[in-house]
Amino acid sequence: MKTYKYPSEEAQEKIDSIVNRGEDLKKDDLGRVGSILEDVKKRGDSAIVEYTKQFDCPDFNEGSIKISDDEINKAFTEVDIQYVKALESAAINISDFHQRQVRESWITTDRQGTVLGQSVNPVGSAGIYVPGGLAGNTPLVSSLLMGVIPARIAGVDTVSVATPSKKDGSVSPYMLIAAKIAQADGVYRAGSAWGIGALAYGTATIPRADVIAGPGNIFVTMAKKLVSGFVGIDMVAGPSEILVIADETADPEFIAADMLSQAEHDPLASAILLTDSQMTADKTINALNSQLARLLRKETAEKSIKDFGAVFVVETIDDAVELSNRIAPEHLEIITENSSDVMGRIKNAGAVFVGAYTPEPVGDYFAGPNHVLPTAGAARFSSALGVETFVKRTSIIHYSKPAFDAEAEDIIRIAEIEGLDAHAASVKVRMK
Fold first, then answer.
1. Catalytic: which of 302, 331, 360, 371?
2. pLDDT value at position 351?
3. Which of 78, 243, 266, 354 is the most exposed place for a label (fewest CB within 10 A)?
C-alpha cells in the first residue's frame, strides 16, 4: 500500500480511482439479468427451479423452494447454544435501536378551516435478500437480522427471506436460526437475480414483495436496479468501503485490523487511512503487511489493499474531515485524541464509529444500527436501511368552504402561470 501526500495531483488521481471503482454494469450481463427477471415473471416457480438447478443445486425441485418449519426447528439442534444466545442478544440491540425510528401519523388544524396531516403506514409485504456467502458456507446471518427486524418493527404483514441454496440443497442452519429469531414469515431457496425476480413479481410459492432490501453481488444489484420502480428497493449498493481518520495517538495495529476487516469482503472493497502523522502512516502500513499474512481470505484482502487501498498524509485533521466529507464513505472510523469533536464535523458517511474501541465489526454485528449502508459516495444523499425503508407516507388534506374561498384566488394565479387552465377551472367552479 502506498502513502500519498494530500493535497497533491498524485493523491487526487488515487482518490478518483478509488471513488470511481466498482463493477461495471456490462451490457451483456445487464441483458442476461433482464432476461432472467422476465423469465421468472412469466414462469414463476418453474424458472426458479431451472436456474437453481443450473447454478446452485442440480437436484432441486419445486417442493424444495420453501423451507419447512421442521427444517428451521431442526437447525436449533445443529449449532452451539452460545451462537443462538449471541444472535438473540444482537437481535435485541438491533430491535431497540430501530424502535426509535418509528414515525407516527400526525394531524394539524393550525390554519383555520383546514385539516392537514400525514398518514404513515407500512407496506404490505417485504422481501429480504440474504447472500449465502462462499457457496452457502459463510451465511450472512447479520444481514438477515438487519433486514427482517426493521421490516417487522415497521409493521409489515409479510416478511419473506430469499437466499441461495447450497449444492446439496440445504441452507445453513445458522441462517435458519437467524430467520426464526428475527421472525421472518418464510425462507425461500432462491438466489441471485432469480431470487430478486421472485420477490419482485411473486410466484406460486414465493409472495410478491412491495419493497426488496438486502445486499448481494453484482447480479443481485443489477436485478434490484431493474425492478426498482415496479417495487421499492433499499438502495443500489456497491463494494464495501472503510475510511479511517487517525492522528498520532491512534494504535496502528487497530487501524490496520479495521482496514482489513473490509478488504477481506471483496477485491473491489476499499480501505483508506487519512492521518496527519507520518509516523502513524508508516506504522499502519507495516501492521497491514504483518496482519495480512495471517488472514484466511488473504488473497481477497491483498488485492483490495493493493488496488483500492491507500494512506493519505494530510496537513491537519481538518483537512482529513474535509476530504472524508467529499468521499462520503460507507464506514467511517475516527480514532483521534478528540474523536467526538471530529465527529461533529462529519456531514457525509453511512455510519460513523467513534473512538479506538469502536471498530466497524461492532456495528456490523451487535451495536444495533443497521449495517446495510450507502456506498460509492451515496452517503451524500442517502441513508442506512431502516424502518422508514418499509413505510410510506400519505398526505391528508381537508378544506372547509371558508378556507377554500380565502385561498382560491392564489391557487388560480399559480395554476394559470403554469398554463394548466383545467386546474384553475376546478377551483373556479367552486367559487360560484
1. 331
2. 98
3. 78
